[in-house]
Amino acid sequence: MRERLAEQIQQALGRLLRAAGDEGPVPVVAVDPPRQAEHGDYACNGAMVLAKRLRRPPREIAQDLIDELGQAGGLVSRAEIAGPGFVNLWLAGDRWQGLLGSLLRAGLDYGRSDTGKDQPVQVEFVSANPTGPLSTGHGRQAILGDCIARLLENAGYDVTREYYFNNGGRQMRVLGDSVKARYLERLGRAAAPPENALKDENEAWPETLGGLPVVFPRDGYQGDYIGEIAQGMIDREGEGLVDEPGEGRFREEAESTIFAEIRQTLSALGIDFDVYFSEASLYDDGKVEETIGALRETGLVYEEEGAVWMRFSALGLDRERVIVKSSGEPTYLLPDVAYHREKFGRGFAKVIDVQGADHKDQGPFVKAALQALGLDPARVEFVFHEFVTLSSQGETIKQSTRKATFITVDELLSEVGPDVFRLFMVQRRPESHLDFDLDLAREQDWTKNPAYYLQYAHARTHGIERQAIQRGVAMPAADEVPAERLDLPEELELIKKLGEFPEVALRAAETRAPHHVAYYLREVAGLWNPYVQDKNRHGILTEDAELTAARLGLTQAVRVVLARGLDLLGMAAPERM
Fold it and tell me: Which tens digits make up the pLDDT trace of 78-122?
C-alpha cells in the first residue's frame, strides 16, 4: 500500500514539475506513517522538497499535490496540510479492506521479497573458541546471526551461515595445558596451586606443592568441564598419557569434546551452519603466509624490535599494529585478514560478521588491510552487539568466563526453553546492552511473558478455527472474504498493521536489526488479543454469516502474519497453548 501511494505521489510531483517547465528528475520524497495515528495513515514532505525548484511557498505546492492525488484513482480519501507544508494522507477504507484478500492469497509467502535477487551473502556468527560451553553472550550472537540470516533469505538473498572455528593460537594451548594439569592431578602425579594463587599474575608459585610439581597454567581454564574431559581420558587411557610430551593430545580431546557440545547447544536453538571453517586450516593451507607476503608487497609492512608491524596510519587509522610478534607468532589480526581474503575468494557479494562489542577495535584494521590488498572493504560489514547480563529479583548475577562461573546457554534453555530464549535475545537493538530477566523468562503467564504473549495470539487463531469447525462453519477462501464488512475502527487499524509486515521484514533485513520484527509482532498481538477478548463487540462467530466470514478471514490474516514473523525470529507458532 505504501509503495502504491509513493508511486502516485512521485507521478503527481512529476506532473507539477512539468507544468512549471521543469524537465529535471523527480526527487524521491519521504512517505512515512506519522508518529500519531490521528494525523493520518501517511505523511509526505514532497511539497517542501519541491519548494526551492518551483520557487513557491511549500503550503501552496502542498495544496496542488493534494489536488493531483484526488484525481489518482481513489487511493486517498482525505488529505490535510500540516505545519510548514507536510501533507497528511488518509487512505480510503476499501483500499485497506482490499489488502486482506491479497494477504490471504499470498499465504505464507506474504512478506517475501526478491530484493536480494539471489545475491550470495555470507553471515558469520557465534565463532566461539572451543574452550568452554556457550555463554549468554555467545547465545545472543547465535540468535542475532541466525535471525539476520533468516531475514536476508526472506528478502531474496542466497545466504551461507558460517561458523569460524577458532582452533589456533595460544588459547588452545592453554586449554590443552589445563586438561593435562587436571589429568595429572587426578592421577596424583601433580597438584594445582591454591585458589588464591590464581588471582595475582605477579605472585610466584612454589615449584612444588605437597611434594608434587605445580603444573596448572596460571591463566588456565578452571571450569568443572575441564576435569570431566580429563576424567574421560583417564577412563580410556589410564596413566598411559602421563609421559605424553606437550599438550597436543589433551588439546585435541578438549577441542573435539567441547565443540561437539557447542554444536548440540546450537542444534537445540534451531541453528544449523552450512560451513564450519577451521582457523587452523589457514595455517595448514599456507593462507597466513600468503597474506603476510601480500601485505609486504604493499610497502606498508616493516620490522621493529623483532616484531612485524603494519603502517595503518598511512591508511587513515590512528596507530600502527603488530601482525607478527617478536616470538614469531601471528597476532589475532593476521589470521583475521587471511580469513577475509579467503571469504572474498568464494565470491560473496557481501560478508556480514556478527561479533561482540569487544571486537569493535579490530574491524577497522581488518577492512583497512583488505583495502591495502586491493579488495573492496565495503563488501565486509560488521554487526556488533553489546553484552548480556543476567538478573533475578532485581540483582545482577555475577559471572566469570575464565573461571567458568557463568550460566551457560544450556542451563538457560533447560529453564526457559528455546522460544523464550530467542525472543529475549532479540528484543533490543544489537548495540544496546541486554539485561536478561530470568524471573520474567521463567514466567508461565502469557499476559506477562512476552514470548508467550506472541505465541498465544497465534494459538488463538487456531482455537477460533476449531470452534468454527465444531459449529459447522467453514473457513472462507481468500477470494470469498467479504472484507467490506470489517468497518470498525479497530478492525481497520488491525488490517493496516498487518499491511506493514512486508516493509518491517525488509527494513529489518536491510538494517540487520531483528528487533524490528519483535516490536512489530508485539504490536500485532497487542491489537489482536484485546480484539478477540471483547466478544460482545467483536464476536467472530456471529448469527450474521457474512460478518462471520469476514472476521474469520481477518483471523486467518492475523495467523499468517504472526506465523511468518515468529518464523523470522526462529520461534515456534503453536496451535494450542
Answer: 899 999 999 999 887 677 788 899 999 999 999 999 999 999 999
228 close to 183: Cβ distance less than 8 angstroms: no
Residue 34 shares a structural domain with residue 138: no
Supply 162's cell numbers.
558460517
User: Which uninterrupted H or E stretch holds 545?
Assistant: helix 545-568
* Of the candidates 511, 510, 524, 509, the residue with the CA atom closest to the CA atom of residue 568: 509
Residue 130 domain flag: yes
Cα–Cα distance between 6 and 18 in angstroms, integer? 18
Q: Please report, for the domain that includes residue 142, its CATH number.
A: 3.40.50.620
The tens digit of pLDDT for each residue in 306-363 reads: 999 999 999 999 999 999 999 999 999 999 999 999 999 999 999 999 999 999 999 9
Domain range spanning residue 493?
97-115+445-568
Identify whether residues 65 and 136 lie together within a single domain.
no
100, containing H or E segment: helix 93-106
- Residue 93 confidence (pLDDT): 67
pLDDT for the residue numbered 246:
86
Does pTM top 0.70 for this prediction? yes
Using CA atoms, how far apart are residues 257 and 221, in angstroms rounded to an integer?
15
Same domain, 460 and 549: yes
Q: How far is CA 36 from the centre of its chain?
A: 29
Burial class (CB in 10 A: 0-12, 13-18, 19+), 452: buried
Whole-angstrom Cα distance, residue 563 to residue 549?
Answer: 21
Q: Measured between alpha carbons, how far is 407 from 135 in angstroms, rounded to an integer?
A: 7
For the chain, how many structural domains are there in total? 3
Q: Is residue 149 part of a domain?
A: yes
Helices in 303-408 by DSSP H: which ranges? 333-345, 362-372
Examine the domain organization and report whether 346 and 378 are in the same domain. yes
Tally of CA atoms within 13 A in the half-sphere of 272 that contains its CB: 1
